[in-house]
Write a structure and sequence with these properties.
Blueprint lengths: L8 H4 L30 H4 L27 H22 L2 E12 L5 E14 L2 E9 L2 E2 L2 H19 L3 H28 E11 L2 E10 L16 E8 L5 E8 L3 E3 L4 E3 L4 E9 L3 E15 L3 E16 L17
Helix pairs in contact: 3-5
C-alpha cells in the first residue's frame, strides 16, 4: 500500500508488517488511466511477468496445531508472526504490478472532538522504479485545476528523469539500501514477536475468508534490542491473519499511553487508534481495502493535529509489463 506518514509508522509496527513510512512524490501523468499505465519498474524486472518474481526466501509454514484446550502456545504465535511478516515482504513485490485509486477523507476536529472541517483528496497509486508513488487527481470531489495538474506532472517527470538517468552504481546503492531496510524490518518483527503476549481469540470471516483472531498485550519485563522497540509497550491491539495465505487481513491498534517520538518531538496521546483491512485480488496479491485512524498528535509541543482519517481503495488494475518507460509528455491515452 502507499507508504503513510511517519506518524502512522509506530502504529503499523505492532504487526511487524510495515516498512519505512515516508511521503512519496506524486504519480501517474494525467493523460493516462490505470489500465494503460506504463511500466516504471527496474529494467531488470520489466521484461518478466509477475509469476516469475520469486520470493527471496521461503518461510516454513508454522506448526499451528492447537493443544487440547484449542489454544496456541506463545512460541507458535511468535513463529506465526515471523512467517506473516516474511510473506508481507513477498506480497510487497507483487503490489508493484498494480495501480489503484485511493480516496482520503480527513475530518479536522475541535477541542471537543466535533468536526470543524472536512478535506477529501483522491490519488492514483502506482510504482516508479520500485518506489510506490501517488498522483493527486481530485480535491473535494473536483478535478485539479490546469495549474495544479501541471504541478503534479512536473513532480512526476522529475522523479522519472532521476531514475532514468541514475548510474549503475547509484542503482546498486539504492538496491542495497532497500535490502538493508527489509532486513531491519525482519529484525523488528523479532522484537514484536518477543514484546507481546499473544492470545488466540478464535476465528472470524474477513472478506469471506477464514482468519485467526489474535490479541496482543505488552509483555511485562520485555527488554528491547532495537531503538524502535522501546515504544512497543505503549500499544496493544488485535490482528486477523488469513488462515490460508498467512497474510494480514485486518488489524486494530490502540495507543495505551502518551508517546514522544522523533527529533521534532511528535507526541501521540493515549487513545490514538488505527484500523486497517486488506483484500485478496486476482488470487495472487493482498491490497489495501480500507483504513481508519483517530489521531491526536502534538508536534514540537506547539501545534495539535486532532483528526479522524478515513482511506478507501478501489479500481485495482494490473498494469502492462511490456510497456517501455516514458516521460509525461510522451504518454498518450489508450483508445
Amino acid at each position: 500500500m502507499r507508504r503513510l506518514s511517519f506518524s502512522l509508522f509506530l502504529i503499523l509496527s505492532f504487526s511487524g508488517l510495515a516498512a519505512s513510512q515516508q511521503d512519496q512524490p506524486s504519480s501517474v501523468p494525467s493523460a493516462q488511466t490505470p489500465a494503460s499505465s506504463p511500466d516504471y519498474r527496474e529494467p531488470a524486472l520489466a521484461s518478466r511477468s509477475n509469476n516469475e518474481l520469486k520470493p527471496e526466501s521461503q518461510s516454513p509454514k508454522p506448526d499451528l496445531t492447537p493443544d487440547a484446550n484449542g489454544t496456541l502456545s506463545q512460541e507458535q504465535m511468535q513463529q506465526l508472526f515471523r512467517v506473516v511478516a516474511d510473506k508481507d515482504i513477498e506480497n510487497d513485490k507483487r503490489q508493484r504490478d498494480y495501480t489503484y485509486i485511493e480516496q482520503e477523507v480527513q475530518h479536522n476536529l475541535d477541542g471537543k472532538g466535533r468536526v470543524k472541517s472536512t478535506e477529501t483528496k483522491t490519488y492514483e497509486i502506482m510504482e516508479i522504479y520500485g518506489e510506490q508513488v501517488q498522483r493527486l487527481i481530485e480535491k473535494d470531489g473536483k478535478p485539479l485545476s490546469e495549474k495544479e495538474a501541471a504541478k503534479e506532472d512536473a513532480k512526476i517527470q522529475k522523479a522519472i528523469d532521476k531514475r532514468k538517468n541514475e548510474s549503475e552504481g547509484e542503482r546498486k546503492k539504492r538496491a542495497e539500501k532497500q535490502e538493508k531496510d527489509r532486513e531491519e524490518g525482519r529484525k523488528f518483527v523479532r522484537e514484536v514477536a518477543e514484546a507481546y503476549n499473544f492470545k488466540l481469540v478464535g476465528t472470524e470471516s474477513v472478506g469471506g475468508r477464514e482468519a485467526w483472531v489474535i490479541d496482543g498485550e505488552p509483555r511485562p519485563g520485555f527488554v528491547p534490542h532495537m531503538k524502535e522497540g522501546k515504544f512497543l509497550s505503549k500499544f496493544h491491539g488485535r490482528v486477523w491473519v488469513d488462515k490460508s495465505d498467512l497474510q494480514l487481513a485486518k488489524m486494530d491498534v490502540e495507543c495505551l499511553d502518551t508517546v514522544t517520538w522523533g527529533l521534532f518531538l511528535a507526541r501521540f496521546h493515549k487513545g490514538l487508534r488505527f484500523t486497517l483491512e486488506q483484500t485478496r485480488v486476482n488470487e495472487e496479491v493482498w491490497l489495501p481495502l480500507q483504513l481508519a485512524a483517530k489521531i491526536d498528535v502534538r508536534l514540537a509541543l506547539l501545534k495539535n493535529f486532532n483528526v479522524d482519517l478515513e482511506q478507501s481503495f478501489r479500481d485495482y488494475k494490473k498494469f502492462r509489463t511490456s510497456a517501455r518507460v516514458v516521460g509525461v509528455g510522451e504518454v498518450q491515452p489508450q483508445k
